[in-house]
Write a structure and sequence with these properties.
heterodimer; A: 62 residues; mainly alpha; rod-shaped; B: 186 residues; alpha+beta; six-stranded mixed sheet; three-stranded mixed sheet; 11 strands; elongated
Chain lengths: 62, 186
């Protein structure tokens, strides 16, 4: 693996190893999706918890 | 050619991911709005929507916001109404006595600039605009002193503008001969 990296780098510094990129791109967006999805899910759960457990029991004011 | 193919695949993958994300966010927004609409229709949870005009130049001279009418009043039918003027930089009166466990009406008017208020620990939260009477209803569930600050910047003394809502137990909330109730001196 290390040899392969050295080989690629020595060929051209700008050249991207397509196989390695494809493998990385298969994982990275999934991690970003889980992170962003988890953050949004926590936000929505927090909103719903405050809405149902705090706001509604306090009753209507209209 | 192979590079172009990989790039195209990559773009398709990004588009698919973005569409999936947009779909998920769309579901969340729809669910949030559904909860609000459902509770509004079934439990009558709505923002205060009283539209009632009053002349801000003369409200202190006569009528329900004249000085002798401010504070808490118990009507002949037992209904409790508190009338408060929000002015730079105080609420008149500074303390409002209310009973626990009874639905009461709070009415506010302003003679000068836009004010706002909330009562801590309750859903009472409204703006007070000159020219209009702001009206909210609520039921206090716990006794004690609650802070009622102005929450709409109204001038240099804004941070000093606050009042106390004194929630009294039912046996201590006793109106006088004129049906008025003042804060207990402690």
């Amino acid at each position: 693996m290390m040899q392969s990296d050295q080989h690629s780098a020595s060929d051209s510094p700008d050249e991207v190893d397509e196989a390695a990129l494809t493998q990385v791109m298969r994982i990275v967006p999934l991690g970003a999706g889980i992170l962003a999805g988890g953050a949004v899910a926590l936000l929505v759960l927090g909103y719903l918890a405050i809405y149902f457990l705090v706001f509604l029991p306090r009753g209507t004011v209209g | 050619m192979a590079e172009l193919h990989a790039g195209e695949m990559h773009e398709r993958y990004i588009l698919k991911t973005e569409l999936l994300w947009a779909f998920g966010v769309g579901i969340l927004i729809a669910a949030t709005l559904s909860v609000i609409v459902f509770t509004a229709l079934t439990m009558d949870i709505n923002p205060p929507s009283n539209v009632e005009r009053i002349d801000p130049k003369t409200l202190h001279l006569s009528g329900e916001f004249a000085e002798q009418n401010l504070g808490t009043t118990v009507g002949a039918d037992g209904s409790v109404t508190a009338r408060v003027i929000a002015t730079q930089f105080m609420f008149v009166p500074r303390c409002i006595a209310v009973p626990r466990g009874k639905r009461i009406t709070l009415r506010f008017a302003a003679p000068d600039v836009i004010h706002g208020l909330l009562i801590t620990g309750t859903n009472v939260n409204t703006m007070v605009l000159p020219g209009f009477v702001s009206q909210v209803h609520t039921e206090f569930t716990r006794t004690g002193d609650l802070l009622m600050p102005c929450h709409e910047y109204c001038g240099l003394g804004h941070s000093e503008m606050w009042a106390i809502v004194q929630v009294l137990p039912e046996n201590e909330f006793k109106p006088g001969q004129d049906g008025r109730v003042s804060c207990a001196q402690r």
